[in-house]
């Protein structure tokens, strides 16, 4: 992996140098991990003039499941109570002879920015912007492998839950059980707070589980994800509790399934992000559900659960090969519930079989 990390830093350095800046300071945790491996909490990465430094508040922990920092990057560990790692890194950049430093203004607080300017008044501070986030959009096959394993873990956890008795159990209890099963199957932990929604809550994006109990006739929508070696995937499914779904439940489910399929089939290198959203949204719009739709149809995943690109009506840009995204249309009807279907896929060219589906739990409307 050292060669991979070195190549990523080289690409960032080219971007920084092309902008006329001597050094760069990366502070956003996911970006630090992308460029230098798993680092202690609060670590920052300095791409310096003479060498790259991983500035840490303490030595790395021996936690093999989380990984280790890139061995080719020299660690600079601050003494106990040594202050802010970013401020220390700015001082180190100055000591290396840098006259300018690109920083992640979108991540730094105002007070931290002021501290940087104060400790190194000789440095001209510029904005690095989302340069690292843009590098992260297209994944290599090692990253995709981690996402694939995370998806397998999430599928296993969900499949086991569906084999258990659900009626009478609370949303909160089911969510906690799913998260325990994720860890049991080898995940670092959940990719985000697991959502379990029943009855009138079903289909609501980002629903926080409550003490409502599962009842016969409910829609039950579940959204969960696993983190594996830092990479996060997502899956969402909707089921019916009982033996025979109502006609309105079948009709709504079939509609959302058709929308999700339309979005998935539109994934291809070169496809405009907004067109993927439009493909799914038109199916639901035409059925009269425009007001019940979420603001986006999907998003990128990786070291964070919501990354670029965004699949939304106002999204700019086009998809590339090897970009993992979710496709997750849904409809929530206040007071009645709703349906959400969510998959993680990797954009692939038609010659390679088209989009690769990572989350494979059935999308049939199961009666549990």
Automatic annotation (TrEMBL):
Peptidase M24 domain: residues covered: 146-348
The organism's place on the tree of life at top rank: Bacteria
Gene3D superfamilies: Creatinase/methionine aminopeptidase superfamily, Creatinase/prolidase N-terminal domain
Position of the signal peptide: none
Creatinase N-terminal domain segment(s): 8-138
EC number: 3.4.11.9
Name of the protein: Aminopeptidase P family protein
Species per Swiss-Prot/TrEMBL record: Streptomyces eurythermus
């Amino acid at each position: 992996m050292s060669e991979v990390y070195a190549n990523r830093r080289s690409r960032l350095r080219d971007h920084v140098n092309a902008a006329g800046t001597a050094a760069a300071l990366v502070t956003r945790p996911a970006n630090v991990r992308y460029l230098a491996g798993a680092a202690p909490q609060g670590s920052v990465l300095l791409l310096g003039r003479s060498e790259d430094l991983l500035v840490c508040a303490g030595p790395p922990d021996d936690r093999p499941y989380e990984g280790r920092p890139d061995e080719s990057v020299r660690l600079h560990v601050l003494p106990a109570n040594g202050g802010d790692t970013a401020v220390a890194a700015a001082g180190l950049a100055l000591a290396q002879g840098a006259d300018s430093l690109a920083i992640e203004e979108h991540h730094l607080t105002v007070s931290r920015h002021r501290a940087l300017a104060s400790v190194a008044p000789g440095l001209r501070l510029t904005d690095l912007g989302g340069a690292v986030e843009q590098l992260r959009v297209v994944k290599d096959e090692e990253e995709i492998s981690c996402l694939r394993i995370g998806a397998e873990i999430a599928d296993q956890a969900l499949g086991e839950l569906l084999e258990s008795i659900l009626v009478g159990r609370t949303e909160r209890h089911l969510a906690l059980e799913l998260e325990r099963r994720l860890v049991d199957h080898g995940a670092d932990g959940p990719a985000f707070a697991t959502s379990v929604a029943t009855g009138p809550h079903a289909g609501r994006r980002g629903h926080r589980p409550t003490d409502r109990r599962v009842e016969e006739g409910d829609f039950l929508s579940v959204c969960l994800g696993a983190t594996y070696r830092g990479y996060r995937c997502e899956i969402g499914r909707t089921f019916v509790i009982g033996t025979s779904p109502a006609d309105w439940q079948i009709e709504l489910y079939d509609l959302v399934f058709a929308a999700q399929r339309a979005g998935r089939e539109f994934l291809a290198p070169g496809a405009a992000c907004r067109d993927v959203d439009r493909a799914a949204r038109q199916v639901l719009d035409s059925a009269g559900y425009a007001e019940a739709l979420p603001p986006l149809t999907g998003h990128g995943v990786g070291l964070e659960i919501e990354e670029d690109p965004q699949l939304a009506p106002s999204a700019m840009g086009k998809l590339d090969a090897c970009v993992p995204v979710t496709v997750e249309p849904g409809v929530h009807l206040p007071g009645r519930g709703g349906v959400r279907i969510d998959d993680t896929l990797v954009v692939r060219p038609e010659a390679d079989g088209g989009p690769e589906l990572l989350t494979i739990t059935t999308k049939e409307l199961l009666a549990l």
